[in-house]
């Protein structure tokens, strides 16, 4: 009884002390430059502007020239330095190193690396996909993070800086239909976990963000429909017969409906976590972003696997009120 009461007191005390501890800010931010990838839209776009407006020298890496122009229209200051970067190409990353080195000014140094670039690769079940779907997801979401980190790691080590990477709740638990996406995000988690411990002697701090579902351009309804339909068009006739057109449409509709229900439009849950990880003297090792991440996905990743599987089946069954299922099972029931 005494142990239980002590524990109940220690838990809230820990969070109060952590909150106070995390209020301490890094000084001289005007000298500590950050590089942020994936700034064309969404989280990257917003955190790049937030950092620049806070007086932080901000190298905003965009995949497209349109992304660069969009940033300049919002904030055309000397603190914001947008440039083009494709995280999947070694040559582009090396050009980025040269750009950053030649554009550091007045005693500035690259102190922060924010790995935000990513793609959303939900195409349906594994039967709808091929190795190229997985390769694309892994190359952008995981190898892109590794490629950029390795190129700039020496800069970060010299000044006891920090590396921040976006994973996902899909980096903690892979639910049905998310295989290609989860593979890349699991990889990010593993890489940063290892890196955090390896770079500890250099004083480098590494943080992982684990957002839930947010309404960004990556989760556009039409884009999801196009992804699934394109994958379906490449599936062989035998697999199409196994699943049926009706089941494919159910995957599109149920996913978009779930996003409407669960996805948050408040991108500040993520961008504020980014900003804290950049500016706090003692950043967290992990940031859970969004109520679905905190109260559903992270807890469910900790339960026994059998129970986890049962919960996902129950949720899918609840969503599937019309009893839509792969055609092969429907045929077995009628025979």
UniProtKB/TrEMBL annotation:
Annotated TM spans: none
PROSITE patterns listed in its UniProt record: ADH_SHORT (PS00061)
Biological processes, Gene Ontology terms: steroid metabolic process
Pfam families in the record: adh_short
GO MF: oxidoreductase activity
Domain of life: Eukaryota
Keywords: Oxidoreductase
Gene3D superfamilies named in the record: NAD(P)-binding Rossmann-like Domain
Entry keyword Transmembrane helix: no
Protein's recorded name: 17-beta-hydroxysteroid dehydrogenase type 6
Organism: Mesorhabditis belari
